[in-house]
Amino acid sequence: MQLDESLIRNVVAAVLSEVGPMPAGSNTPLSRHVPPGAGHNGIFTDVNEAVAAARAAHLQLRARSMEDRKKVIDIIRRISIDQCEELGLMEMRETGIGRPEHKIEKLRTLGMLSPGTEFLQTKAFSGDHGLAVIERSPFGVIAAITPVTHSLPTITGNAVSMIAGGNSVVVNPHPSGKKVAAEGVRRFNKAIAAEVGIDNLICVLAEPTLETADALFSHRDVALICVTGGPAVGRAALRSGKRAIVAGPGNPPVVVDETADLDNAARCIIQGAAYDNNLLCIAEKEVFVVESVFDDMMAAMRRAGAVQLDASQIAKLTSQAITQVGDDKHDAAAKDFIGKDAAVLARAAGVNVPESCELVFGETDEHHPFVTVEQMMPFLPFVRARDVGHAIAMAKEYEHGFRHTAIIHSRNVRNMTTMGRELDTTLYVKNGPCMAALGLGGEGYLSFSIAGPTGEGVTSPDTFTRERRCSMVDELRVV
Ligand code: NAD
User: Fold this and answer.
1) What's the sign of the alpha-carbon dihedral 227, 216, 10, 168?
2) Whole-angstrom Cα distance, residue 42 to residue 50?
3) Which among 127, 73, 10, 13 has a CA at the least distance from the CA of 471?
4) CA angle, 175 as apex, 425 and 358 as ends, to 5°?
């Protein structure tokens, strides 16, 4: 089904006519027969109404059992998995970036693997003075900002983890992914309301703007902020005066040393860098290869199916795909090329490749804009390094201190250790594609909000809880 704005408005209008006008203010007594916003299925155009409804939903959830929380999460999982194709294609049509098969897969995978209530661990201290129990308690209403690169997937992962922690959430989605965000949220809430009896656990602003984001950040009933996006939104969240979890930008470098299995490195680099046309924040963005194996590595990339561009073709692509923005005219990825297919980039370079081609690549120097900029498109620059020390130094420089993600292909444990220490990133993958760091082909768990700047790492239900300690003095130690 194609969702459009008039449909959202109709849903909201129909609901308002049933439940009457929204109560003013955010601290409406919950003794009302109809909680604020009930029947909206999470879709709002007014920040105060959205927060009031989310608050009412949170208080209802708090009064329920853990079993009910699990039921809510299972409903989100079920819809993400069963409807991944329809919703994934809806996201593809609306945003126009990425690859349809990966839009679908992201929803299915997040539905299956986002960590739920099982992640909430209680700790205890037992000693001569009794017993202290440390439990994980919800914050309340969380404000979330989501990126255009994964609109509904980020909402899905955030919702599972936040609700597992006992919270509700109000989302200000990227304007270019607002329709699929609203439709996904509507489906989640509708099913949750029907099966568990709570509406609006996940609220979305149907007309998101920077003003609605600001109003959310400063709302007195918002207890915590979680933003997923580039530098500007991270700065805005940190200025808000509230606790903010910032899943910020990256520019993940790859180092390939002389001991690497080059064919495995090539397969992994293509898998990570080509996924959803390089939209993942963790995706391989530039590769530094030691001189002695540079030409062999380029041959391995060609064997693995990527298409190599020569210097003049790269120059032609760069003139269109990189643009200058801001007062200082700094380089940035051109919007028309972000998340487009490799075949589109190749055509811009004057080369015809089959539509099935996943990645184009080529040699550049280290100062090339495709190295310095987080390009989010499936052209990957390869830079020669004198030796592994030089490669690691360049990787550190062009990661820009985001401390997000870094990757090495090597069999030398010392080199792996040196790079890990030098780059100090939140995610560090050895001999695999970037997604191995999120439990996809490696160990660990999945989330699409990786909080580097504020230090929470790969977000989980624990991230969205407060620690509370209950102390029993001199009793209840039974051993
Ligand atoms: P973006 O920064 O343009 O937008 C992200 C979100 O922030 C959008 O909802 C946007 O409307 C909002 N926003 C932007 N400026 C704002 C401001 N001043 N105040 C309030 N809200 C603001 O990014 P995008 O193109 O949507 O997504 C790609 C970026 O997100 C990349 O930099 C990528 O690395 C990053 N990202 C990071 C993670 C992570 O887990 N760390 C995950 C996905 C994407």
Assistant:
1) positive
2) 8
3) 127
4) 55
pLDDT tens track, the chain, 479 positions: 334 445 444 544 443 343 333 333 334 444 445 789 888 999 999 999 999 999 999 999 999 999 999 999 999 999 999 999 999 999 999 999 999 999 999 999 999 999 999 999 999 999 999 999 999 999 999 999 999 999 999 999 999 999 999 999 999 999 999 999 999 999 999 999 999 999 999 999 999 999 999 999 999 999 999 999 999 999 999 999 999 999 999 999 999 999 999 999 999 999 999 999 999 999 999 999 999 999 999 999 999 999 999 999 999 999 999 999 999 999 999 999 999 999 999 999 999 999 999 999 999 999 999 999 999 999 999 999 999 999 999 999 999 999 999 999 999 999 999 999 999 999 999 999 999 999 999 999 999 999 999 999 999 999 999 999 999 999 999 99
**Could you tell me the pTM of the whole model?**
0.93
Ligand 1 atom 14, closest CA: 233
Q: Which of 301, 254, 259 is nearest to 437 (CA)?
A: 254
How far is Cα 63 from Cα 144, in angstroms, rounded to an integer?
23
Give me 415's structure tokens.
């080199």
Using CB atoms within 10 Å of the CB of residue 327, give its burial: 0 to 12 exposed, 13 to 18 middle, 19+ buried. exposed
- Give residue for tokens 């909000």: 449
Residue 116 Cα, ligand 1 centroid: separation in angstroms?
25
Ligand 1: residues whose CB is within 6 Å?
A: 145-150, 173-174, 210, 213, 228-230, 232-233, 236, 247-250, 281, 374, 448-450
Could you tell me which of 409, 347, 342 has the C-alpha nearest to residue 375?
342
Ligand 1 centre to CA of 177 (Å) is 12
In angstroms, what is the span from residue 207 Cα to ligand 1's centroid? 17
